[in-house]
Design goal:
The chain has no helices and five strands.
């Protein structure tokens, strides 16, 4: 059994114009009492990890594509 947290699934429309997102993120169901400073999360191969809380963000694989 793995202790790896389940990644927060994001759609391409959830990303900002730079192709990233911020943590804490409403999609991660974080409550006000357990948040930390807002940090930018960049993605590598469709995944990004928050350096504060370790939350893993993943873009839906069906929406990952090369630039226009």
């Amino acid at each position: 059994m793995s202790n790896q947290p389940t990644p927060v699934q994001l759609q391409a429309s959830d990303l900002d114009r730079n192709g990233g997102t911020y943590c804490p993120n409403p999609k991660a169901d974080m409550k006000t009492w357990n948040t930390h400073p807002k940090v930018f999360i960049a993605f590598t191969d469709g995944r990004g990890v928050c350096p504060y809380c370790g939350t893993i963000y993943q873009v839906d694989a069906s929406e990952q594509h090369a630039g226009h």
